[in-house]
Structures are given as C-alpha cells and as structure tokens.
Specification:
The chain is mainly β. It folds into 2 domains: 248 residues, no CATH class; 89 residues, Immunoglobulins (Immunoglobulin-like), CATH 2.60.40. The protein is 0% helix and 38% strand. It has no helices and 24 strands. The strands form 5 sheets. Strands 2, 4, 5, 6, 9, 10, 14 and 18 form an 8-stranded mixed sheet that branches.
C-alpha cells in the first residue's frame, strides 16, 4: 500500500545568497525589491507576492499589535486575551502544526518557509520597521487555552533557529514594498534539517519588532535594486511600530497530481508497450481516508489516453483513489481492502 505525497513545493534555482555590500556586519537591509541575504543558515528576502489576499493561500498564525507602543512582540499560542503574555492578538493568533509549514526546495536544500506582513505608516521613514528578535521552536507539548508555557520557554520546547545566535542581528523592512494588509513583505527560509527528523508536532515562533538600533543603508523608493542616489545611510537608527499590526504566517499554494489509468492486460503491475490507457475513470484525492469520493474532494476524469490531472489539492499527504467500476480488478496495488487505491 502506498501513499502519494502531495506538497506545494516552490523551486528557486540559481539563487546566490551573499551579503549585500550595503549591509554592515549585523544589520540586514531588506528595504529594496529583490533584496536577499543569509543569516545563521537561513535565507531572508524582501517579498512582494502577487497573489490576492482573498485567495485563501495565506494563513496567519501570529499577530502582534500595540497601538501606543513602538516595540511589539509575542509568540503563537491558543491563550485568551487575559492570558496573552505580550502583544499577541488572540483573534489572529493560534497554535500551529509544523507539518503545515511549507517545505521549499532552494537549489538542492530543503527549507521551511515563514512569511511576514508588516503594517506601517507609508510616509518617509515611518514605512520602515525592524525585526529585532526572531526565534523558532518546536514541541510535542499539546497547546491549551490557558498558559501551559511562557517565554522564555523551558523543558520540552526546543529552539530550532535564532536570528541572534552568535550576534545581535537586526533586519530592516519596508512597508512600501507591498503596502496593504495581507500583502506580505518578507520571507525567511530555514533549513528543514534543523527541524528533524524526527519532527515535533507543533511550531512556536517568537518575534520582536521596533526596538533595536540599525546601522546601514535603507531605500525608501522600494526600487528593484539599490541605486547610488536613493539609499540613505543611518547609524543606530531605530524604526518602531507606528500603525496596525505585524503578522506571521505561511502561504500554502494548491498542489497538482497527474497520472495515468491503464489496462494492465498481463497483470504484471507495469504499463507495458501497447497497453492502452483507460478513459472515463474518476480519480480523486481522499482527504478524509474513508474510501469514498466526498463533496469537496478534488477529482478528475481520465481522458482518451487514460491520463488525468487533479488541480487545487490542499498541500499534505493523502490517499489518491479511483472510483471502482463493476467487472474490473485493480492489479496494482492489489492488496485488499485497498483495491482502487492508486499509488504514484
């Protein structure tokens, strides 16, 4: 019995991750379109996605907000308003499964990708905001609606990545890159090998913004590359929270499954030369594993050549099955009760 692994994987080829000549040693300039760098093994990038905020691809799990505070911080949890430790907004903050953090292949290395949407005033340097602290943890401790753990975390919660490991680093972002709520401005890709295997169940992200001093260049016009006239040098500049909220989450683009249903005339479990495809068979993704094509489960009907393409699959691991027809036996795999279970 097999399981088809379906996951939205972004391919980024030929990416050279090198420190920008405009950055000083511990300050990272992500204020210009296309900016990218590496810090402590992770790839950081200015991010300007074009997908609409209403597509459902973007899923936030941590929102920090404090109208009268230049510094905002917090971590994702399931606590209510009275139990929030810092500036978390409980309406938009929740526990999150590690398995729901997308895996992204960059070159030949697998990463986990997190994205950030910042909200600042758009006038001049008010558009800028710093990331002062970013720490990623995992745990098998089940979340609860009342505090079961608080920051700094103790036993049973393992740190997987830290922006400030080895040095007090700071990242500077520009709201002008992609203004508007839900339009992300930054992404970080952390090596998957830091998370496992074995993998814990839950991921916890702790973030702080708006307090650390930044020394380096910034570029307010959000151009494609920093020019010789636009970037401005600042020493020990502090760029705090001044509007709205900062929101961490993930983007999970739908996956696609393709395959062929064929007539295995010699029952050898292999599509041999001359064996025809079978048209008009329904192939579906069995989200709930009940062996039945349910409403909402994506499916496709095979064409004249037996080929099919199923679109709009939620990233994850599922069984892919066929709707059986009388008089036919599934030759591969053929172990009961899994007849009709397609293996990619």
């Amino acid at each position: 019995m097999g399981t088809a692994l379906l996951m939205a994987v972004g391919m980024v080829l030929g990416l050279v991750a090198a420190a920008s000549a405009l950055d000083d040693q511990y300050s990272y300039d992500m204020t210009w379109r296309g900016a990218t760098d590496t810090v402590n093994g992770a790839i950081i990038s200015a991010f300007t996605p074009t997908d609409s905020t209403g597509t459902g691809y973007w899923h936030s799990f941590l929102r920090v907000s404090a109208a009268n505070s230049a510094i905002v911080k917090g971590y994702n949890n399931d606590y209510g308003q009275k139990d929030m430790q810092f500036n978390e907004d409980p309406s938009w903050t929740e526990s999150f499964y590690l398995k729901d953090v997308p895996q992204v292949m960059v070159g030949s290395v697998l990463y986990r990708e997190f994205q950030l949407d910042i909200n600042q005033n758009s006038k001049d340097t008010d558009a800028l905001l710093s990331i002062d602290t970013l720490e990623v943890y995992t745990t098998n401790i089940a979340p609860t609606p009342e505090p079961g753990y608080q920051y700094p975390f103790g036993a049973g919660i393992s740190q997987r990545w830290d922006l400030d490991a080895g040095a007090d680093n700071v990242i500077l972002l520009n709201f002008g890159l992609n203004p508007g709520s839900g339009k992300r401005d930054f992404k970080i890709q952390i090596p998957d090998a830091l998370f496992g295997p074995p993998y814990d169940t839950w991921v916890i992200l702790y973030t702080e913004h708006g307090g650390d001093a930044y020394t380096g260049y910034y570029d307010l016009d959000a151009g494609a590359v920093p020019s010789t006239t636009d970037p401005v040098w600042v020493e020990n500049g502090v760029f705090g929270n001044n509007d709205g909220f900062e929101e961490w989450g993930v983007t999970k683009y739908p996956a696609t499954k393709m395959g062929t249903k064929f007539h295995d005339q010699n029952a050898n479990h292999v599509k041999d030369a001359g064996e025809p495809g079978l048209p008009n068979w329904t192939i579906y993704v069995d989200y709930d594993g009940d062996g039945v094509l349910d409403a909402g489960e994506p499916s496709a009907v095979t064409g004249a050549d037996g080929k099919y393409t199923i679109l709009g699959i939620e990233p994850g691991t599922y069984d892919v099955r066929e709707v059986a027809k009388p008089g036919w036996i599934c030759s591969y795999p053929n172990t009961a009760p899994d007849n009709g279970y397609y293996e990619s």
